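dude i think i finally got it to work??
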Amino acid sequence: LLVLDAAAVLRLQAQQPLGFMLAALCHDLGKALTTQEKDGRIISHGHEAAGVPLARQLLAAPGFADPALTAYVCNMVSLHMRPNALAAQGSSEKATNRLFRESICPADLVLLAAADRNGRITTQQATDDAAEVYLAERLEKFLGA
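look at this
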């Protein structure tokens, strides 16, 4: 819910505000299927892929039967971990461009990554700020290309 709160602050910047909020709601659904304890740590490897069918099922409910909206949300759910991972690794421009080409809406994906960062209880503000700058610069280059 912290990510949903952070997304609500950013939603008016999104190109697709409804889809963006639904993506924020659904982004970690896969954790219900993948969470486990390993070496005293809670991990959820692969939760983004596991969450796509769950998001698709949720969006198949009456009132949501919009294929474009479903595609957008499922794309965002499947990719939501990658922007922050690429930023943390200082990945190449080629790697971020590949991600942005895979994304239905790269600008909204960067916003979702920001909501995911901002929705965590953390003391890593400098790291979070660096990720935000990195992703904004890469997105600007991508969109300008």
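The radius of gyration is 15 Å.
im so relieved honestly
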